[in-house]
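ok so for the tutorial part 2 we go from a plain amino acid sequence to predicted structure tokens. step 1 is just haveing the sequence, like this:
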Amino acid sequence: MDRAEKVDLVASLHRTFSETAVVLVTHYTGLTVAEIGDLRKRMREAGAGLKVTKNRLTKRALEGTQYASLEGLFKGPTAIAYAPDPVAAAKVAVAYAKTNPKLVLLGGSVGAHALDPDGIKALATLPSLDELRGKLLGLLNAPATKVAGVLQAPGGQLARVFAAYGDTGEAA
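step 2 — the prediction. this is what the tokens look like for a chain of 172 residues:
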């Protein structure tokens, strides 16, 4: 990798760090290329990303971002997971680490708030942004549905009364 490519990589990583809500740092020692590919695929499906990075270049990219406190985690073979949704990357990383112990969660950060491995696991138990939006819409729609049902009930009762009178009039 020549100097220009390194400058482009640092700029790309810096842009990624400034646009993302969460960054997780992992060790991937022992993972095969196929396993890393599978992890990347799972991350993409969840709306997150995974990059195997060079530590020195990543530390440079962290400078001036809210994730600068993660600099100490970049030792050994590291990969970063990132996402605009704080929960998405954590859910995938924790689930994958449970099935494959070669992936080790070192730490991370949600904005300027640093996370240890237990914090990442706690973050993974939270509902995702899409799940929260669905619950909120359900809560907002529920009262409207109940109001519509209450308003329709008297009309339905009147219709049943008129139908009953009509039936008794025909019988007579």
